[in-house]
What does this fold into?
Amino acid sequence: MSCHGAIVGATGAVGHDLLEVLAARGFPLRSLRLLASPRSAGQRLTFRGEELEVEALGPDSFRGIDVAWFSAGGDISREYAPLAVAAGCAVVDNSSAFRLDDSVPLVVPEVNPEAAKGHAGILANPNCSTILLVLPLAPLHRAAGLRAVIVATYQAASGAGQRAIEELRSGSRATLAGEDAVADVFPHPLAFNLIPHVDVFRPDGYTKEEDKMLFETRKILGLPELPVEATCVRVPVERCHSEAVTVQLQRPLTVDAARALLSEAPGLELVDAPAASRYPMPLPMAGRDAVAVGRVRQSRVLEPGLTFWLSGDQLRKGAALNAVQISELL
Ligand code: A2P
It folds into this structure.
């Protein structure tokens, strides 16, 4: 059965990847409406070899639409997703607006596909760093029981949108030319720098991004008490987030057993041959569906426990691909 679809935020970084993923997976679309701010109305984007015109988002945008992928920020989702649902449209929302709402499924199809069944119109796509993290956590939990997770992220500029990519590029050019890099999207220049500040700070010193990793991981894995300590860092990489992860387990798991589990888990690719200098890195993962995991070793601090490293395209699996996979479950 084919359907009528719409992308809200079609001109953005995730919108761009949604167009590619929908075409590459042959998602059965009879039509696709591209929606963005009035600034982009009339712009033309290519989908399946055909030029489509971008329209300004409005209250009537969802008439006759069966499924809409939202990626234009939380405020737009809060205002327009209920209107889309009222018009009979299923919404896959990439913002954080509804993720922790008890009536909204938060889905990573390789991990908790059954959650999608109970939806009431809106399905939430988790935070990009969280999607990458739960892919290896799920099989490790099934095998040995998770007790705690400590993670540091190395998040690419593109996670903050199209303007952030431009800021990293122009800042890199300016720095190399001996000029000052300008910070507008980020709180400081990102070129040749690291910024341990993703999203806003909470009174307890953690950021909202770090809270997303805690609360969304708990909801997706169905482990409401799981301790998850995250430190989220923006790095001068254009595309693909990486994460250093340490897990404490309930039962010991050998490195070989963990590698075997991770190599078979859906959505993951084991890249773990340190002697050959093979391990996950952002550059080779750009544009790839799989999340690479490697550097698997016994934790020296949390026992029994494991430490590993992952890299994955946060615009693909961390956003557009996961959103399309959710709609494929419907
Ligand atoms: P536009 O390009 O017209 O500003 P990114 O995450 O890369 O920054 O992209 C954000 C997306 O959200 C863009 O497609 C952007 O459209 C869209 N957007 C921003 N503000 C609005 C708005 N008020 N109404 C509809 N779409 C919006």
User: Anything to note?
Assistant: Helices lie at 13-24, 74-86, 128-144, 162-176, 208-221, 255-264, 282-285, 316-329. The first strand starts at residue 3 and ends at 8. The radius of gyration is 20 Å. The chain has a mean pLDDT of 98.
